[in-house]
């Protein structure tokens, strides 16, 4: 469960997130839908404690990110391509994160398997395609077996197979009872992935409803 109350983020004169209130339920995929600049990324960064709110609050399972004893076990995130050293292998990258957080090597193997990276885990990340890079990002997000997953535009730039794979994985993870939140600027993408949509525009929530309410089909 992710809850925002009156959440606001001001950058100078710019109000990137403007008095936003929402509840995101577990066991389903929720999408932030909105055009470029709508405030999707900023809201995610506020949830993850990567930015400080100007006012209002946002909590995950009742706790602010900064209050969590072991955040990786509660919230996993895939933001825009974070720098993995290109000379590193996928396995060594994941092992390094795991080691810092007291997570076992066995769990590294599990997430490599779940993201279909086992056969390339010994290869340097510099040679990875965009889709493989996204899988690695998701593998890292899953390391702590978190109940909440946050993904910023996870299918951007991927080929149809890559898009389908991420969609199926997210739906599976939600079916396990996790809270899955992703962002997209494409309604067509949301219609195929999300159960519930929160429309953001100019930093404000313009709609917050089950997918069925946006579509003329059942
Ligand atoms: P989205 O993810 O929906 O594309 P963002 O959350 O990235 O939107 O951005 C929302 C608004 O806030 C945009 O107008 C953007 O330019 C502005 N913004 C985002 N981050 C910063 C920042 N660090 N400094 C100044 N303005 C920012
Ligand atoms: P079990 O061994 O209890 O049958 P599963 O076959 O359900 O377990 O899952 C084995 C591993 O594969 C788990 O890590 C699970 O999260 C993952 N997994 C199972 N099905 C999928 C799927 N459709 N997409 C992604 N991961 C999956």
Automatic annotation (TrEMBL):
UniProt-recorded Gene Ontology molecular function terms: ATP binding; ATP hydrolysis activity
Keywords annotated in UniProt: ATP-binding, Nucleotide-binding, Transport
Top-level taxon of the source organism: Bacteria
Domain (ABC transporter): residue spans on this chain: 2-218
Membership in a protein family: Belongs to the ABC transporter superfamily.
Protein name (database record): ABC-2 type transport system ATP-binding protein
Species in which this protein is naturally found: Leucobacter exalbidus
Species classification: Bacteria, Bacillati, Actinomycetota, Actinomycetes, Micrococcales
